[in-house]
Design brief:
Radius of gyration: 21 Å
Number of strands: 8
Strand content: 5-15%
Largest sheet: 8 strands, mixed
Order of helices and strands: HHHHHEHEHEHEHEHEHEEH
Helix content: 40-55%
Strand order of the largest sheet: 3-2-4-1-5-6-7-8
Distance between the termini: 18 Å
Structural class: alpha/beta
Amino acid sequence: MSFFEKLKTGLNKTRAVLTKNLDNLVFGKRVLDKELFDELEELLISADMGPQFTYDLIDDVKQRIGRDELRNAQEIKKVLQERMTDILQKVEKPLEIPRGKPFIIMTIGVNGSGKTTTIGKLASMLKSEGYEVMLVAADTFRAAAIEQLEVWGSRVGAPVVRQKANSDPAAVVFDAMVKIKTGFSGVVIVDTAGRLHTRVNLMEELKKIKRIINKELPELSPEILLILDATVGQNAVFQAKTFKEEIGVTGIILTKLDGSSKGGVVVRIASELALPVRYIGVGEGLDDLRVFESVDFTRALLN
């Protein structure tokens, strides 16, 4: 199965909510009236596209009707696809990882977002592209997270920097920085905690890790990847906003699209936060994490 087919299958739940309902809405409707616009608004917001995108789309449709560019309701789908692609192309920015010199990826996100599994898949992808990879177990608050990362490390052939459970996460990251200084020139992926007993504690812990990286290797600017679970819908927007403001997110990985009917949230994240979407996850398999491509995404969702 090609990745496009896999993406299409992965987006089945979102497509069932959005495309099927959209087809039902516009099929046979000749009249472009207020009732149609109200139903369209309700549909797009329920698909987690967000109010701003929804209002802009409906405004665009109305303007096109005014200019005689839109004759029937079926053409609304074409306008939706154009606008989605336009917004998503702005955040389609694949990660550029140099060869022959160290590159640090700090992964952040709440527990349950699929962070450690995504790190394993990302490590596997990078190894297959010829990069050296080192994993850093800085989620020291959960012994299971350290063990899970070690399983991934042995699976993909990447060494894991770790200390015992409940160690200071910043100390683990410091150890990794020492390894870079002594000659490691591949990709370093840092796993971090997703939940401490308060949000303030979590953010302070992440800031501390970021400070250690910046202090020890000021010449390297770490990629701060936020792992978001697509199944939480608009809650993902709130998470992205919070982490962006507090930590300075540089990119997003959207996971579990195959289990979600809320895949439209990527449009809202793109239009409201303008954060680059680096990768998307559409399944459990090792090769189900792929670089985000906006045209493929909108085609898989709407066609």
